[in-house]
Please model this.
Amino acid sequence: MRGFGTLCNELRIERDRSRTAVDSVVRKDLENQLSFRIARRFRSGDQEHLGRPSGARGWHRLRGGRFWLRQLRRGLALLTLLLPLPALAAGPVVIVLSWDGTRHDYPERISLPALERMAREGIRAARLVPVFPVNTFTNHVTLATGAHADRHGIVGNRFHDRERGRFDYSDDASWLEAEPLWVAAERQGVRAAVFFWVGSETDWNGIGASYRRTPFDSAIPESQKVDQILAWLDLPDGARPGLILSWWHGCDSVGHRRGPDHPAVAKQLARQDRELARLLAGLDARDAWATTTLFVLSDHGMAAATRWIEVAEILKSKGIGARIFRGGGTAYLHLDDRHRRERALSLLSRAENIQAYASEQLPAKLRGYHPKRSGDIIVLTRPPYSFSRPSLIERALGRFGRIRGAHGYAPDHPAMGAIFFALGRGIPRGARLAEVRSIDVAPSVARLLGIDPPRHSEGRPISALGEMLSGGVEP
Model:
């Protein structure tokens, strides 16, 4: 005896998984919709389940095993040809995808049909300018809040707070000191859905996204994220989210391991583009573009790193102890004895390829100093140097010219620029922008949704989007 879920799983196993054929995407989406109509159950992430499987009892009465499976297959095949996908309702939808570590010039290296379509039919910026320090957690929070690190408080992937203690890739939203987009949306009556984003896994000040995928799992492929995004869009009016954010692997991992110029980077980008093509096909099939805006962007770029600086060794040689929180081209030093800071600064200032600052004297333009989280000293370097500590194997390979990738450098360094593409409602066709600031993404998304930006946002809506909306496309 087989339940409905088992039958659908068997169908999915046998379904054509072509990533490039639009008809296979449409067939999958139709199967999902048929499942919803029969079982009246549609899963919307790990946090939300709509309804009960009221049709399941009837399916459990089925007998005949393979005979019924064959009948179901035939029925599904016929209905996928006959049933049109319903168009989305009129409420605006904004989807934001972050491709981690995808440098602004990577798309020039290989044919990428999906990104090329977005550039042709929408906007592409020459580069998205991240904030300091140019690391993953800092910049994902900036993209979501529209604020610099000194305002939102996430000054790196790892850091030490003098009162709370150690932050180490934490999923606790209470570390954020600025309101993120999904909270701003929910507070103003717009449902939000998040499939992985820094700070999204728990509520912020008592508010969280209506739908969110937890816990973070880097093993989940982009194909599953595309399926879930389309499933969210297929929810009925009143349940469908207006804001969707999703972190994708991008090229960060391969860029770190092999360097930004390795051929494997282009191959990974092509894999991301194939999944983006599936999402575009799904939006096409739903006639979604009149109400939907899609952003594909990144948190930071990547630079080649061939040399490592051991800050701890410089200080240790003079008997100065410190805890060091490294992030590529930036490191925060917490001295064991803060009274020795001037001596430590003197030592570091004489070291090659290092800029050292008393934390509160970090150049104001960087907007990176936080009184509780930036330590006693902040040290900076530039490519090809890095503060990140390589493993023993990586050090050995480095002696033979092995190149790794790093970020965390000054935001204006050319290699730190990220990608930025936008397509859909409110986006002018074929527009080209020189630069987009990461702090401007959140207020731009808010404008497209017809809501106020996050409360602590410091950016402003991208001008090209504002022109389209003021020209007659209402939120």
In short: The chain has three domains: 4-82, 93-302+412-470, 305-406. The first strand starts at residue 42 and ends at 43.
